[in-house]
Every structure is written in structure tokens, then in C-alpha cells.
Request: fold
Amino acid sequence: MTGFVVRRIGQMALALLGVSVIVFALIHFVPGDPVRTALGTRFDPDVYEALVRRHGLDRPLVIQYFSWLGSALQGDLGVSFRSGQPVTGLVLERLPATLTLAGAALAVALVVGVPLGVVSAVRSGSKLDYIASAVSQVGVSVPDFWAGIMYILLFSLTLGWLPPSGYVSPLVDFTGWLRHLVLPALAVGLVSGSIIFRFVRSAVLEALNQDYVRMARAKGLSRRAVLFDHVLPNAWIPIVTVVGLQLGFLLGGVVVVEIIFAWPGIGRLAYLAVGDRDFTVLQGSVLYIATMFLVINLVVDLLYAWLDPRVRYD
Amino acid sequence: MTEPAAETTVGVVAHRSRLRTTAETVLRNRLAVFGLVILVLLVLVALAAPLIAPYTINEVDVANRLQGPSSQHWFGTDELGRDVFSRVIIASRVSLQVGFVSVGIALGLGVPVGLIAGYYGGRIDSILMRLMDILFSIPAIVLAIAILAALGPDIVNAMIAIGVVYTPIFARITRGSVLTLRDAVFVQAARSIGASDLRIIGNHVFPNVIAPIIVQTSLSLAFAILAEAALSFLGLGVQPPNPAWGRMLSEGRAFFQQAPWMAIFPGLAIFATVFAFNALGDGLRDALDPQQRSIIESRGRS
Reply:
């Protein structure tokens, strides 16, 4: 297991290095001059000179990359082109909001997807299975941002049950925070929940049809015992994989949904940075989102290896 | 994964009958047929859109702004009095176009990478697949946003961004299938009679890995259309005054309470298109992937 962990961490470090190249290159893909583009109509030769020097944009690319990487490794992602504030601070301020939304959405997805998937598979062909499968087919095809808008229309503007957007710190007003969290978490979570449902259902169905299940039934074990002792332990492995894959999708959904609900997370920060052409803030946001994604995937892979010893020796 | 190796030695007859079996299985799946019907309708509507649309997309009629659905305006009118129905059907053209072109880019980049990585293995494989892993380690929509922020918001750039984002999926799927074939008897036979690598890959390997690629294409079209909608929604895709479903949704948000139809109908259009590609993709997978098919058949037994 230790070998696997070390190898997997090495792979993650390599991927992160690759991501850093892409993120660094971003600023250099900008047609023309990123600083000039960022300044736009507020162009001032003195500010321009200062920004170019501050970001070292007058040095050779390779040197720029390594100096940027060196600083990034120490937590310094430069300063915002627009406000002059340190990027790391801006991103870290918004990290908890993004993590809570992602966590809440994942909770929604798991609570909806896993039990329903298991029940649907066990009672496959039943009315419940039919309805749940149809709903999940709809769920995977609904754009999460549209779902968000429809929830606002229904639950906020028509019924007046929940606030349409915004954020309150849980330290100030816990109930208020929870009320603001519900709709965005549902918007992201139900789509992922539909995908998880489909995988859980087919994983459990597949496990149900294995010879060892037939054997266990033939031995006279109850359906319940077979399900909990034989079927589910074997179905967990594909389920963990799909939950891991879903997290990337979920993080992407969070980014867009944050914008609709004015949720002060990293996604919204990145979006505003695009509008402001604030490339350093965009770099920082993308780097943090990718890092989160890689770390989550690492955890999922390790969990996977722990659940299924075969993976470790692959 | 499919295991087409067994079928390949039988030749053309088997190939044709396999095509027929696939088509029959897909056509037996009611949901897949439903998806196919929606898609055919959508493509017809997109092709004939300028003829069907009762109004032109930018026909401003301020006196009739924010009108609800009626016999004149089936989907109502927007804040400038433009007909939402006309805009929704004209926008189908751009959505499908972005979907097809971007998935075409992803196929064109990803399949060759997967073929080469899987066929040659070793160092080439490691390098190519690590590169794909890197692209895969940024959530798709975030990577697309970043690419568009750098290249500038534009429809062609959106196609490039979405295409790049979905390249790794095709590379992985192709590679996975090629790995199961690399040492197959017919590949070794071709090698032993001195066929070039290009010929072996093109004539022997590729035709046998096409099934999972077809399935992934249909599912990716659904994702690509969702991604285009999200990017247009964020103002990074199609630029005004041209209509795009995502863009219409975001414009509709400002008039939410007065004119909910502005956000409802473009959203329904996105949903219907994505649903159709997903349903067809699922049907194709059931038909082309024996393992999945056995799961479907097992429904009767359990």
C-alpha cells in the first residue's frame, strides 16, 4: 500500500506541475499584451511600466515561469491586476464558501443517489424503479444553471420560501446561512445525484447477478443479509469511482451555480476576473480549483485501493 | 469494454449482421428511439429554421415587449419585443454546430492520441496519457472558461475550448480498447506479413475500437451542448445580437418576475437536446456493449 500511495502522490505532483504550466501559459495566450488588455481604457504608461515590472513580464518566458512557480509554491500568486490585492488572499477568503457549497451538493447527491439506486436495483422492474430511472434520465440532462434559475423562480419568487441569492456567514446567522445554501446545493447536487443513482443502480444490479449471490441465496440467507453482506460490499468499488469522477463535474457545476446565486466562492471570483480581464486572479482561481480537484481524486484513489486490494498491484 | 476480437475474423458478413443487430437493439429501446426522433426533428428544425421562424431574430417591437406566450408569440416576447420562439429555433443551429464541431475536434485529437498510445505502449504511451491526465485534472468548464478568457469570448474559440476539454475522454477510451487488441491474432498476422504500423492501426485496429467511440460521441455531444450553453450563459460563447440558448437564459434573468418564459423556453430547448443525445447514447451503449446489455437483460431474472 505504501508503494501505491507514494506512486499516486508522485503522479499528482506531476499533474499539478502540468496544470501550473497551463495556468501560467494562460496569461501568454492573451492576444497582444495582457497588461495592456487588462488596463483597457484606463491605460497609463506609468501604471503599465509598474505592472510589467511587478509581474516580471519583461523577462524571458522560462525565467518568468520558474519565478512564478517558485512564488506559487510559497503561496504567493502575485497581485490582482485590478485591485492590487494579493491573489492568494482573495482566493483563500472564498475557499470556505466554495467548499461548503461543494460539500452540501455532494451530500445532496449521495443522499438522493445511493439509497434510491440500491432500492431501484433490488426492486428492478418495479414501478419505483421505473419512476426513479425516468427522473434520473431527466436529471442528467438538465443544465444545473437552468435548474438553479427555475428553483429561484419557484421557491423564492413564487413561493417565497427561500432567499433567491446571496450569502450569510454561518458564524453570524446559522439559519440564514443554511437557507441561502439550500437552493444552490440542490441545483448542483440533484444533477450529480442523478448520475450517481444510475451508476449505483447498475453496480448493484451487476453484483446481484453474480454467482456468489445466487450461492448465498441458495444457502438460505435472507435477502437482507445477502444485500448487506454480499452485494453492497462488492458494489462499493464502482460507486466510489463514480463519486470521485463526479466531484470534478460537481466542482464545475459549483463554479457556474455560484454565479447565479451570487455565492461568494472561487467560481464567482474567476468569473468576475474574466470580466475584469484580471488575469492573475483568474490564474490563482484556476490553480486552486485544479488543486482541489487533484487532491480529491487522490483521496478517492487511495480509498479505492484500500477497498479493492487488486488496484494496488495493477 | 467491448471485446470485438472474436467477431473480427468472420469478415464482412459478420460485420453487416452486427450492424443490423446493433440497429435492431437500438430500435427496440423505446427511450433511444424517442431520443433519435427528437434529434431528427431538431436537425430538421435547425436546417429549416429561417423558413420556420415566424419573425426574424432581431425584429424589435417595443410596443409588444415582455408579452406572455400567445398565438402570435408562442414562447412570448423578450425585453425588446423580439419573438422568443423564433430566437429559440434559430439558436438551435448554433448549439448543434458548436456541439458537432467541438466533438469533432475532440474526436480528431483524442482518437489518434489513444490509438498511438495504446498501439505503441511504453514511453510514448506514458507521455501522451500523462498529458491527457493533466488536461483532465482541471474541471472541464473551468478549463473552457480559462481558455476563452485568454483567447477572447467568441463562438469559434468556444468550439476550440470545448473540443480541447473533451479530448482526454476520447484518448482514454480509445487507448483502453486498443490495449485489448494490441496482441490479438489478426494484428500479429498483419504484422507478420509486413503491414506497416499505419496500415495495421488504420485497417485492423481502428475498425475494432469504433463501438465505444460511437457511444462516447453521442454522450459527449450532450456534454458539449451543455458546455456551450453554460459558456454562452456566462457571456463567453455566442456574442449578441446572435441568439444562443445559454445567452437568452442569462438575459432572461433580469426580467425574471415579469417574463419567466424568457428563461423557461431556452432552458427547455437545452434540456430536450441534451436529453435526446443522452438517451441515444445510452441506447447505443446497451447495443454495443455486451456487458451493459447483459445487465439490461438481467432485469427480467432478478
Remarks:
- The CA atoms of residues 116 and 127 of chain B lie 11 Å apart.
- The radius of gyration of chain B is 22 Å.
- Chain B touches chain A through 53 residues (CB under 8 Å).
- Residues 1-10, 292-302 of chain B have pLDDT under 50 and may be disordered.
